[in-house]
Design goal:
Protein name: Putative DNA primase/helicase
Low-confidence stretches: none
Radius of gyration: 24 Å
Keywords: ATP-binding, Coiled coil, Helicase, Hydrolase, Nucleotide-binding
GO molecular function: helicase activity; hydrolase activity, acting on acid anhydrides
Strand content: 15-25%
InterPro entries: PriCT_2, TOPRIM_dom
Shape: globular
């Protein structure tokens, strides 16, 4: 049985010494537990422990810590991992007053963490709105419905509802001022010239260039939330704070009552499936987002048969594209297919 008595930060540091820091999944899980229990006060202990790993990078640790969401993993996970590694928690005789004090301190930490989570979520929603507004301005003013894309030519697929930059455009995203601004042409060069070196953590950028293909990402109600760019080399970029969860790009949306609707990951795969079958296909970007995109589509098209078109990556350990798609299809009760083409 895991002892879930609240731990001080000093005791946390002792426990962490018995957990290997090299496995990334464990590293992230322990970070989540530290942030859940201690909030930002837990960063120093987690960061010190992280430095045991040969792959440790300070900048990576800070970036990952900022991205962690408290509440998913709890202190019991750290205690179990430490015990599995040979740690024995010191048994101390505590008075009733000591127990009340430790419990009160833990509850106060959790209260502060909960308040911070609420504030962070509210800020995230404001930043998502700001980025969505900037993306809308770019769509309306600086993109064309027709254009050239070396990526699409190389993949041999057509342009279905995607857009093409008329000129170089930059969206600057400032999480400190909570705004997103659009810069065009020579303004982009001026923005980079005035950018502080090193770049502050609260400043981010999303650049669109002629030759890119731009995929609009919309929510179930049709609201534009973000853009994805795919450049000449096939690199896919997405704006910081752009909302992805539950958003997609629907190819063949003009079909009012389709018999079949498919969901795939990348644009090129989705376009290929549409061209081969005529089905409407939702571009979900990745298999994780398929789980958020598919259920609303099943509600929107209740008479349509849904097929999840997964990426088959036999050269990747565990073939996550196939295994995760199969698991999701079993969960949703729908069909699954793996197109025999290069995943994109």
């Amino acid at each position: 049985m895991v002892d879930r008595t609240p731990m001080s930060l000093d005791e946390l540091r002792l426990a962490l010494q018995h957990i290997p820091a090299d496995d990334r999944e464990t590293w992230v899980s322990v970070g989540n537990a530290c942030k859940t229990e201690y909030g930002d006060d837990g960063f120093s202990a987690w960061d010190e422990w992280s430095q045991q790993a040969a792959s440790y990078k300070a900048a990576d640790a800070r970036s990952v810590w900022r991205s962690l969401t408290p509440g998913h993993v709890h202190l019991g996970t750290i205690i179990k991992l430490a015990i599995d590694g040979g740690w024995q928690r010191e048994r101390r005789e505590m008075s009733a007053e000591d127990r009340r004090r430790l419990k009160a301190e833990a509850e106060e930490r959790r209260r502060r963490v909960a308040a911070q989570v609420e504030a962070d979520q509210a800020k995230l929603e404001r930043m998502q709105q700001a980025v969505a507004g900037a993306c809308q301005r770019v769509m309306e003013q600086h993109l064309a419905a027709q254009g050239q894309s070396p990526y699409l030519e190389r993949k041999g697929v057509g342009a279905y509802g995607v857009w093409f930059p008329r000129r170089t455009v930059l969206i600057s995203i400032d999480s400190q001022r909570e705004r997103a601004d659009v810069w065009v042409g020579p303004e982009v060069r001026d923005w980079f010239r005035e950018l502080p070196k090193p770049r502050p953590d609260h400043l981010h950028m999303f650049q669109l260039r002629p030759g890119d293909v731009v995929v609009p990402l919309r929510g179930q109600d049709g609201t534009l939330w973000a853009l994805q760019t795919i450049n000449r080399q096939g690199t896919k970029l997405f704006p910081k704070f752009g909302r992805k969860a539950g958003c997609c790009h629907l190819i063949g949306s003009d079909q009012a009552a389709p018999d079949i609707i498919a969901v795939a990951e990348g644009y090129a795969t989705s376009a290929s499936v549409h061209e081969m079958t005529g089905w409407p296909v939702a571009v979900a970007l990745d298999v994780g987002n398929m789980a958020r995109v598919a259920p609303p589509l099943m509600t929107m098209y209740p008479r349509a048969r849904m097929i999840l078109c997964g990426d088959d990556d036999p050269g990747t350990e565990g073939n996550p594209g196939r295994t995760k798609t199969q698991a999701l299809a079993a969960q949703l009760g729908c069909a699954v297919a793996f197109p025999s083409m290069e995943a994109a």
